[in-house]
């Protein structure tokens, strides 16, 4: 074969290889994405935090994989969508058409994983009520933002500081309230003694009713019950010797403590109402027999005590309502069903394989390596 023929053959082989490469590139760029999208419908998921989610991550629903994450893009400020103009990300999900029956338009979407260091995936959860219709092509879903560890710790610390500040602000008022309740009890006792001496009769004779009971006796008993209830409530809720310590150290018992505190406040409110009625009746009867400045002072003091009780009760009720709604990072963290398993797995890794988080130990020095080679 002559040199010209060989050169012509080499040229033809090169042109053929170049044409084959161009065809392969065209298939990958233009045809392959269309084939991959065939049989899938696009659904947009809006989040403010990705939480380690990557493109290509699977999408699961009802224990089965029904699609994957096609793309992740930025959602700028003031952009239309479920984020309401907030900066976030748009995760485009490619869901298999045959598996749409496993989805719910009124459900929720969360970023989940099988462990602390496992890969993240999108999980579609059913709604609390009726399932409703499935997702359709082009639907936009507002996902549940995954918790970020540093942000959770920061918000938890802020919540603890708010709790401590609330205890410091309410504790003096509660102490002052208890002192005023005791002063009111002493004033009622003194007034009862003076009224008994002025009448010159026994408490049973001064009752005037069929039962023969003195309203001052019932008033003193109700006031003593209110004092006991206030002391117990202060010890359990407002940071007595055990209340706040248990709240900060044993978070698992917060639910039971909340129920006990609500019951205590309910009982205290009922007794305060009864005390107010008895106090009004007793003061009205005493004022008819022994009017004076002391009766007016006791009446004003009783009204002030009742008003402060209402303020303290409203403040405590507000705190328990926030805890019941699971507001704040601590409530969300306790409500996360995967948090105990993640904490256990992270503890095992820190104990057995700490180099997976902190890095491997440094390599041997140059001298030791040289002696090894020798």
Verbal overview:
The protein is an alpha/beta fold and 374 residues long. The C terminus is likely disordered. The chain has two domains: 103 residues, no CATH class; 185 residues. Helix 2 packs antiparallel against helix 3, helix 2 packs across helix 7 and helix 5 packs antiparallel against helix 6. The chain contains ten helices and seven strands. The two termini are 59 Å apart. The protein is elongated. The chain has a seven-stranded mixed sheet with strand order 5-6-2-3-4-1-7, with no helix packed on it.
Give a quick rundown of the structure.
With 374 residues, the protein is α/β, with parallel strands linked by helices.
Using the CA coordinates, give the radius of gyration: 37 Å
Q: What string gives the helices and strands in order?
A: HEEEEEEEHHHHHHHHH
What value does the average pLDDT take?
72
Proportion of residues in helical segments: 55-70%
Sheet having the most strands? 7 strands, mixed
The proportion of strand residues reads 5-15%
Topology:
Blueprint (H helix, E strand, L loop, with lengths): L2 H35 L2 E8 L10 E4 L2 E12 L12 E9 L11 E5 L8 E5 L14 E3 L6 H51 L15 H22 L6 H7 L4 H36 L3 H32 L3 H8 L3 H14 L2 H4 L7 H8 L1
Parallel strand pairs: 1-7, 2-6
Antiparallel strand pairs: 1-4, 2-3, 3-4, 5-6
Salient structural properties:
374 residues; alpha/beta; 2 domains; seven-stranded mixed β-sheet; disordered C terminus
């Amino acid at each position: 074969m002559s040199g010209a023929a060989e050169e012509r053959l080499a040229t033809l082989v090169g042109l053929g290889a170049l044409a084959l490469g161009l065809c392969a590139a065209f298939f990958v760029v233009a045809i392959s994405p269309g084939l991959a999208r065939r049989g899938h419908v696009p659904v947009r998921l809006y989040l403010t935090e990705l939480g380690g989610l990557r493109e290509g991550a699977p999408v699961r629903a009802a224990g089965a994989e029904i699609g994957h994450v096609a793309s992740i893009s930025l959602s700028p400020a003031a952009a239309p969508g479920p984020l309401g103009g907030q900066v976030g990300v748009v995760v485009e999900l490619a869901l298999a058409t045959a598996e749409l029956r496993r989805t719910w338009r009124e459900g929720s979407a969360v970023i989940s994983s099988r462990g602390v260091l496992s890969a993240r995936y999108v999980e579609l959860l059913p709604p609390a009520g009726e399932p409703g219709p499935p997702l359709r092509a082009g639907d936009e879903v507002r996902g549940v933002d995954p918790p970020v560890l540093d942000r959770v710790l920061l918000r938890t610390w802020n919540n603890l500081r708010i709790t401590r500040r609330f205890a410091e602000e309410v504790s003096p008022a509660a102490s002052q309230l208890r002192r005023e309740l005791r002063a009111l009890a002493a004033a009622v006792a003194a007034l009862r003694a003076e009224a008994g001496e002025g009448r010159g009769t026994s408490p049973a004779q001064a009752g005037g009713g069929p039962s023969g009971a003195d309203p001052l006796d019932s008033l003193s008993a109700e006031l003593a019950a209110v004092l006991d209830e206030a002391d117990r409530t202060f010890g359990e809720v407002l940071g007595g010797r055990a209340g706040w310590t248990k709240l900060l150290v044993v978070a698992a018992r917060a639910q039971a403590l909340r129920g006990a505190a609500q019951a205590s406040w309910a009982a205290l409110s009922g007794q305060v109402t009864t005390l107010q009625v008895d106090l009004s009746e007793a003061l009205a009867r005493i004022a008819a027999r022994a009017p004076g400045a002391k009766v007016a002072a006791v009446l004003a003091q009783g009204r002030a005590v009742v008003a402060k009780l209402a303020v303290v009760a409203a403040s405590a009720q507000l705190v328990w309502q926030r805890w019941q709604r699971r507001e704040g990072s601590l409530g969300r963290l306790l409500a996360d069903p995967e948090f105990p398993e993640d904490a256990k797995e992270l503890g095992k890794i820190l104990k057995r394989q700490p180099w997976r988080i902190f890095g491997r130990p440094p390599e041997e020095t140059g001298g030791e390596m040289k002696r090894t080679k020798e």
